[in-house]
């Protein structure tokens, strides 16, 4: 990756109308319908954006949208990228670098995750307070990373305290249960074994998923304030583990979606 690649993609999107955005949003599982609340000014398929990866997950769209939401200019990533699709960590996070180059000042991320903390239940939302990177690498581990920012990026507080405080208050005002916890990112796409769930609990994880952490690391590298919320779609009890049911996971994410949309819209209005 080099500065020229970033410039080519950024210039292309500006020519298509992606100008002066304030907020970027990664629409993971559980937030796809936020698009219906956006006054769309322009949209483009990932396939048509120079240097962009393509989303290969069947329940992820692959579009970049720009418009107005709650009075703010917003870019939405409708669909994200994962290690388990065969992409590198640099490819996965390339869109975050583009959003930053276009001018966003805040980044909001959603995902689906499994609950390791058994006090948390299916359908709950969890605000990420910290994370554990178990993906075996870093999106900052490339030769010329210093061209883009400080190589040794500090991660003592990866999630923006101000946005976390605001969304917590919004949840309380709307009687929405918003858990708080530590998210562990694994490679996937296989789900975890009973022993792996026990290990994740021992090391301090409250939830486990296959995304988000690379994007958050790059956001911190870019000094871009970031917030992330998980929809907890299954309960990972190693003593009562059932085979994974992907349609059920998608259904639970869909049921939790209105709560997530309420939180994100109110947060956008107040940042």
UniProtKB/TrEMBL annotation:
<comment type="pathway">
    <text>Purine metabolism; purine nucleoside salvage.</text>
</comment>
<dbReference type="InterPro" id="IPR035994">
    <property type="entry name" value="Nucleoside_phosphorylase_sf"/>
</dbReference>
<keyword id="KW-0328">Glycosyltransferase</keyword>
<dbReference type="Pfam" id="PF01048">
    <property type="entry name" value="PNP_UDP_1"/>
</dbReference>
<feature type="domain" description="Nucleoside phosphorylase">
    <location>
        <begin position="23"/>
        <end position="269"/>
    </location>
</feature>
<dbReference type="InterPro" id="IPR011268">
    <property type="entry name" value="Purine_phosphorylase"/>
</dbReference>
<dbReference type="GO" id="GO:0005737">
    <property type="term" value="C:cytoplasm"/>
</dbReference>
<comment type="similarity">
    <text>Belongs to the PNP/MTAP phosphorylase family.</text>
</comment>
<protein>
    <recommendedName>
        <fullName>Purine nucleoside phosphorylase</fullName>
        <ecNumber>2.4.2.1</ecNumber>
    </recommendedName>
</protein>
<dbReference type="InterPro" id="IPR000845">
    <property type="entry name" value="Nucleoside_phosphorylase_d"/>
</dbReference>
<dbReference type="InterPro" id="IPR011270">
    <property type="entry name" value="Pur_Nuc_Pase_Ino/Guo-sp"/>
</dbReference>
<dbReference type="GO" id="GO:0009116">
    <property type="term" value="P:nucleoside metabolic process"/>
</dbReference>
<keyword id="KW-0808">Transferase</keyword>
<comment type="function">
    <text>The purine nucleoside phosphorylases catalyze the phosphorolytic breakdown of the N-glycosidic bond in the beta-(deoxy)ribonucleoside molecules, with the formation of the corresponding free purine bases and pentose-1-phosphate.</text>
</comment>
<dbReference type="GO" id="GO:0004731">
    <property type="term" value="F:purine-nucleoside phosphorylase activity"/>
</dbReference>
């Amino acid at each position: 990756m080099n500065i020229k690649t970033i410039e080519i993609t950024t210039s292309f999107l500006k020519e298509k109308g992606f100008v002066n955005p304030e907020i970027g949003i990664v629409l993971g599982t559980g937030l796809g319908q936020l698009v219906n609340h956006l006054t769309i000014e322009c949209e483009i398929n990932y396939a048509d954006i120079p240097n962009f990866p393509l989303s290969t997950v069947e329940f992820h769209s692959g579009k970049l949208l720009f418009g107005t939401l709650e009075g703010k200019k917003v870019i939405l990533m409708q669909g994200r990228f994962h290690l388990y699709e065969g992409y590198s960590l640099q490819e996965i996070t390339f869109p975050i670098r583009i959003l930053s180059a276009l001018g966003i000042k805040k980044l909001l991320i959603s995902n689906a995750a499994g609950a390791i903390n058994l006090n948390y239940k299916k359908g709950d939302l969890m605000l990420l307070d910290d994370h554990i990177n178990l993906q075996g690498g870093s999106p900052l581990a490339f030769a010329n990373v210093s061209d883009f920012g400080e190589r040794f990026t500090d991660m003592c507080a990866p999630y923006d305290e101000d946005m976390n405080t605001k969304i917590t208050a919004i949840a309380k005002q709307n009687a929405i249960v918003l858990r708080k916890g530590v998210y562990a990112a694994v490679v996937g796409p296989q789900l975890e074994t009973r022993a792996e769930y026990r290990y994740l609990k021992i090391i301090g994880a409250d939830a486990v998923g296959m995304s988000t952490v690379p994007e958050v690391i790059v956001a911190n590298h870019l000094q871009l304030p970031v917030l992330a919320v998980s929809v907890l779609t299954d309960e990972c009890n190693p003593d009562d583990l059932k085979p994974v049911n992907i349609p059920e996971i998608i259904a639970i994410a869909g049921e939790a979606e209105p709560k997530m949309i309420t939180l994100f819209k109110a947060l956008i209005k107040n940042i």
